[in-house]
């Protein structure tokens, strides 16, 4: 990608020109060195203004013609969000950053870009362009812009109004984003979809906007026939009314984000392709709308899945697992080295862990630990919940092989994961991520709206979890 794609970034050559001001990023332990960085008068001004050297503080140092420099207090590590306030809180113009030991340049660039993110206009009257703060990309920082680009793409998809982001639009967005990177993208629809993915078709039967399934295949330039196969699956419910088990009005307000799992997996695929990892990649997205009409699925329907298992519909608002199960079955058929799905699947996961901590389930301890460790090290955390098989009996049905909801009002995230596990082929290493994909309010680097968590954690874990094979 090109740095020019980000209005908030400037190429490193700009940093050698005059007129570029400096952001001094310091740790609390370096508070006593203020005078060395901004001069005695600048340090005195900061102290008298109440600047105390606490993590997150941003101080502006005056000069002859306005602001001369800035000081940001940070902590060592890989948290990009501590740089998120810079893009909006700094005066317009060109800036470069001086980082303390223990913080990589790409983390600062990523955080700056995430904080500069603005939701697309979506038909809103155009606003006059204004000058903004721009960061000169330091050496080693371009990798942060690649991650930011993937997150920006995903955020844009989630933030799109549901009338502008239906199943067809989501499928076409996947084609538009991935084909230029060399992916072969197929969009399955109509009778072919109904035959291959009967549960996806059943969920989408109530909407005039017909369901679509995206299948994208790609091989890295260094990936031979024996390169590891990574399979990604995402839930793309573009709007969820709950069906006949209708949600209350308040519950529908954010249901445009119910395609967040698809946005996350699409963003991850984009990053894998952009960085040309030596893998073979398959991506499957179930793009569908869960609506109410005379043709919509009903509670107590029985559906025959792609795997041959029959499912009784105990609740039409538990549609996400129906969208995923046929896609997981097909993904398992290719015997991937690693299969990962992401979905805004259950409110139970949010009750247990809140909005910022996605729930991780896996049938492989090494895969789970690699993702957890990567998330901790890069500031993109998850929390593992168990696939507690004793609860699988709660999914029994008197008329089908299983029900899509449990008989007990407990452990909803676990029973949803156990439902999905039924469709994973024995021997396939699998991880399921139950995610919120939304920021309820503004925080540094995390504006209110769609969010793409777990992307950095999962990406960082791939080289640890995918086997190394000799390419041919």
UniProtKB/TrEMBL annotation:
Gene3D superfamilies: Leucine Aminopeptidase, subunit E, domain 1, Zn peptidases. Keywords: Aminopeptidase, Hydrolase, Manganese, Protease. PANTHER family: LEUCINE AMINOPEPTIDASE-RELATED (PTHR11963), PEPTIDASE B (PTHR11963:SF20). GO terms for biological process: proteolysis. It holds the Pfam family Peptidase_M17_N_1. Residues 315-322 form the Cytosol aminopeptidase domain. Belongs to the peptidase M17 family. The keyword NADP does not apply. Transmembrane segments: none annotated. One of its GO terms (molecular function) is manganese ion binding. This is Leucyl aminopeptidase family protein. Signal peptide: none annotated. One of its GO terms (cellular component) is cytoplasm.
């Amino acid at each position: 990608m090109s740095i020019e794609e980000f209005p908030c970034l400037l190429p490193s050559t700009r940093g050698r020109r005059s007129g570029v001001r400096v952001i001094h990023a310091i740790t609390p332990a370096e508070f006593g060195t203020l005078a060395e960085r901004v001069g005695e008068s600048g340090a005195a001004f900061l102290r008298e203004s109440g600047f105390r050297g606490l993590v997150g503080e941003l101080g502006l140092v005056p000069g002859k013609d306005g602001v001369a420099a800035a000081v940001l207090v940070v902590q060592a590590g890989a948290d990009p969000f501590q740089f998120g306030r810079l893009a909006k809180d700094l005066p317009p113009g060109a800036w470069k950053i001086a980082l303390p030991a223990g913080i990589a340049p790409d983390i600062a660039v990523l955080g700056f870009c995430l904080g500069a993110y603005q939701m697309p206009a979506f038909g809103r009257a155009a606003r006059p362009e204004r000058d903004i703060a721009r960061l000169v990309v330091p050496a080693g920082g371009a990798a942060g812009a690649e991650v930011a680009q993937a997150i920006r793409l995903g955020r844009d998809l989630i933030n799109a109004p549901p009338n502008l982001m239906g199943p067809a639009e989501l499928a076409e967005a996947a084609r538009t984003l991935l084909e230029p990177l060399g992916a072969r993208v197929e969009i399955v629809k109509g009778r072919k979809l109904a035959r291959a993915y009967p549960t996806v078709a059943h969920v989408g039967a109530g909407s005039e906007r017909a369901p679509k399934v995206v299948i994208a295949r790609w091989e890295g330039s260094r990936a031979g026939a024996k390169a590891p196969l990574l399979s990604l699956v995402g839930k793309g419910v573009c709007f969820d009314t709950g069906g006949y088990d209708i949600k209350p009005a308040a519950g529908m307000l954010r249901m445009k984000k119910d395609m967040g799992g698809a946005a996350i997996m699409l963003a991850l695929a984009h990053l894998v392709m952009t960085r040309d990892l030596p893998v073979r990649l398959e991506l499957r997205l179930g793009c569908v709308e869960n609506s109410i009409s005379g043709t919509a699925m009903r509670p107590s329907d029985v559906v025959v899945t792609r795997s041959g298992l029959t499912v009784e519909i105990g609740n039409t608002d538990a549609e996400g697992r129906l969208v995923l199960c046929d896609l997981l079955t097909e993904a398992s058929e290719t015997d991937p080295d690693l299969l990962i799905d992401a979905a805004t699947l259950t409110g139970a996961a949010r009750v247990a862990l809140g909005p910022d901590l996605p729930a991780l389930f896996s049938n492989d301890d090494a895969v789970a630990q690699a993702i957890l460790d990567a998330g901790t090290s890069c500031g993109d955390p998850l929390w593992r919940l168990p696939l507690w098989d004793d609860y699988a009996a709660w999914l029994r049905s008197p008329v089908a092989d299983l029900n899509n909801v449990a008989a007990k009002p407990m452990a909803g995230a676990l029973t949803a994961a156990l439902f999905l596990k039924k469709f994973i082929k024995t021997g396939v290493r699998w991880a399921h991520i139950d995610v919120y994909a939304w920021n309820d309010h503004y925080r540094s680097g995390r504006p209110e709206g769609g969010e793409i968590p777990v992307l950095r954690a999962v990406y960082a874990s791939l080289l640890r979890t995918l086997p190394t094979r000799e390419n041919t």
